[in-house]
Amino acid sequence: MRDFFRERKGVREQGGVTRDLKKAHARWDVFRKVKAGDKHFEAVCARYSRMIQGAALQAKTEARFQNELAWQERLRTRPVLTGAYLKPTLLHGPLPRVRPQPAHVTGMIVWRRKARERRLVKQELLQEQLKHVNLESEFERNLARDSKASPFEGAFDVYGDSWREPIAHDLLDIRRSFDQERKRSRTPFPRELLEQVKSARRAKIENKTRERERERRGEVTNRLLRQMRQRPPAHKLALMSPRQRRMDAIARGVSEVGYVGQVKRALGFKLRNPDAWKAEMGKPENREMLDRLAKEVEEENARRESEAPASADWPRPGI
Questions:
Q1: Closest CA to 243 of 251, 233, 255, 235
Q2: How many CB atoms lie within 10 A of CB 156?
Q3: Residues 6+ apart with CB under 8 A from 293
Q4: Is 154 within 8 Å of 140 (Cβ atoms)?
Q5: What are the phi and psi torsion angles at 233 (to 5°)?
Q6: In whole angstroms, what separates CA 277 from the centre of its chain?
Q7: Model-level pTM?
Q8: Which H helix or E strand runs over 83?
Q9: What residue spans carry the Basic and acidic residues bias annotation (predicted)?
Q10: What's residue 15's pLDDT?
Q11: Contact status, residue 41 vs residue 34, Cβ threshold 8 Å
């Protein structure tokens, strides 16, 4: 009941308050009857309690699933060092290249670019205003010099510093910001960052090496699928025959033995192990046994072929 009133403490409408009070009194009557020993309402409250427990368990399970999905998405989109550098510019200092690039880094660069554009526009406007103030001041000096009969006190000539001071102050701030940008663009890479990027570069090479080893063992990776889907350039593909296209598609695999190795040797590929195909013929010490087995298989095939015409004359079922 405390939770009931706590959730509805902000209700101010008369109809809503009346409806909630009636509902609260009805529940309170049920609880008093249960406390008095009413079996029917005890069963109702027990069933309602089980429903609440089931709903809480379901909500907890769904929250666990959502947390796991969020964690998987976070792992999938986590920034990974690529081993490259982002050289310092006017908009950012030395940074490592990561993929995907964090949103706050992109936002920082975009914001600084827009701020620089605003400062350039403001600088041009202030310089134009300062030029106008100087022209007005010079005009008033000339006017005062020519009008000797009647005294003339100009606004820009006498009080010119008060006009120029705020403009000069803003221009100085803009120049300082530009100096800060140039200083940022000349910032060297910290030693810790260099070591981190080099370590990421070594890890990338190790990962790619392990990936190639898995591919040679028969695993089909995403990189291998992309490689096998590639085709020659359009101007070369148009001049290739169907047989050449098939050989090109076969040669894009990672194998260097069997039919793939034969195609690669025919196309003039430089193989990692040119003598790997010799293992298909077996070890030298087992060559005699393999030849004997091959001869037995050939004899058995010949015998079955000779018996095939006689068996073809047998009556077939249903005839």
A1: 251
A2: 19
A3: none
A4: yes
A5: -60, 155
A6: 42
A7: 0.59
A8: strand 80-86
A9: 294-307
A10: 80
A11: yes
What is each CA distance from 312 to 31, 53, 268, 308, in whole angstroms?
A: 89, 73, 47, 6
Q: Which two tokens stand for residue 96?
A: 């490592």
Q: In one letter, which amino acid is 173? A: D
Could you list the mean pLDDT of each consecutive 10-residue stretch along the chain, which spans 319 residues? Answer: 73 79 80 82 84 91 94 89 93 93 93 96 94 84 72 67 88 95 94 94 94 90 92 93 93 88 90 79 79 90 81 48
- Classify the phi-psi angles of 314: left when phi > 0, otherwise alpha if psi is within -120 to 50, otherwise beta: beta
Q: What are phi and psi of 97, to 5 degrees?
A: -80, 120
**Please, which residues have CB within 8 angstroms of residue 101's CB and are 6 or more apart in sequence?**
79
Report which secondary-structure segment, H or E, holds 97: strand 95-99
Q: How far is 78 from 100, CA to CA, in rounded Å? A: 7
Q: Which helix (H) or strand (E) holds 285?
A: none
What's the rounded Cα separation, in Å, for the pair 134 and 124? 15
Domain ranges of the chain: 2-76, 81-193
Q: What is the residue type of 299?
A: E
> Residue 95: beta bridge partners?
86
Task: List the structure tokens of 127.
Answer: 């310089």
In sequence order, the 6+-apart residues with CB closer than 8 A to the CB of 84 are: 96, 97, 197
pLDDT of residue 152: 65
3-class SS string, 182-219: HHHHCCCCCHHHHHHHHHHHHHHHHHHHHHHHHHHCCC
Rounded Cα gap, residues 295 and 303, in angstroms: 12
pLDDT at res. 318: 46
Q: How many CA atoms lie within 13 A of 112 on its CB side?
A: 16
The C-alpha atoms of residue 87 and residue 186 are separated, in whole angstroms, by: 10
